[in-house]
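Notes from the 1:1 (GR / supervisor)

We went over the backlog. Supervisor wanted to see one worked example end to end before approving the batch request, so GR pasted a single chain during the call. The sequence is below; no edits were made to it. Supervisor asked that the structure be written out right there so they could see what the output format looks like.
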Amino acid sequence: MATSAIGINAIAADSDNEIVYSYADENNNIINITQSDLDAEHWNKEALGDTAPAIYENFPMNMTGYSNDVAELYLDFEYMKNLKDMDSVHLEITKLSDDSLVYDEDLQQESFYSPQIFAGESYKVTLTETVDGNSKSYSKGVTANESEIDMPEYVTNPDTDDESIIMVGDIEDLKSGKISTGNSISVDTNVAQYAHIKANEFKEYYSNLPSNKVYRIYTISNGDVYSGYMSTEDDIKFYDLTIDSCDWDSFYSPTLLSIPSYTTTDIKNNAVDARYTEYCYKLSETSNNSKCKIFKVAMPDSFLNEKIRLFFE
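Structure output shown during the call:
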């Protein structure tokens, strides 16, 4: 079966031999999938929806990032096969900075959240299926980020006449009203409340906020909801908590670029961008034996257009 697909469309099926999915692979060959094909590989059509299983062959889980009102980030998992068909399905999440296990359990349900993960950290997620006594493992690499986001003009450059409402909540206050119910986390508004600030008063409002604090921010502009977090560290910054993921084999694959007259020592001494957004990491030693893992490095001002990825052993 093809491992990548374009033009995926779902087709209603009334019997095991009728086509459920039909799509074109990377060579434009038409691939048809029947209900019998799905059953043979234990795929859960309800979980797949309109997406053919080819998308999940290398990692049979849908994995996204979920952040809540109190600036906590989790991996949101949905297993795409029938759990009841398996002898067991085991999930392991390892934090790469110290090789600690964040999660190490057998799946008990198809949909669930991981324990909290943290911006600036990278993780290896390994899923192991055992069916009829045979085991198969799949792995992905995940990086958690603070990603800068856009806000309406009246937030970043408010006009004196604009009275649009901006909702702001102190993360520490919101945490005091946090309620956990099963897989869901909400905020009790009787305990923790959002301030409602008019846009023309917002600049003065945030200029009086204490430094090194994080706030939840919401606003609505032309029917669109804008939400994220606002940091008062150094200068004001608007961001969201997000993840990037890729196949494990690509996660540690270096891309070599030629930079004339620059040695690795020069790079280590002159890498200046330590922000975790856009994969720009300051190059640094990550273990006692001076081994470095892969980082993308933002070069000094004279090399701002050159971003490199290196692998040191």
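Supervisor's comment: The chain has a mean pLDDT of 78.
Batch request approved.
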